[in-house]
Design brief:
alpha+beta; GMP Synthetase, Chain A, domain 3; three-stranded mixed β-sheet; about 110 residues; two-stranded antiparallel sheet; single chain
Amino acid sequence: MDSTPIDRRTIVRQLRDVIDPELGVNIVDLGLVYNILIGDDKVVLEYTVTTPGCPMRRYLQQEIEKALESIEEIDNYEAKIVWEPEWNVDMIKDDVEFFAHPPPQQRV
């Protein structure tokens, strides 16, 4: 990592741009981000998906990695999916507006 310290707020701001396309809500407000670990040379993001068989799992992984890559202060990161605790709807932030972001356009 470069000499500028990174804080969790910067990471969270970037992760708010990662939208679950099935629900139209960012992964932070959905409660999918479990932990942000910041070490001397690496950021580890622990996150989950709504179900183990989630069809958007790979897409979300790629979008999370893009968000982390976009932060100048982060040179080394890992986006790590975890299954404990199991996600449930009670983890969604209060007053979330579903489909506030329309799903991505399908290619023809």
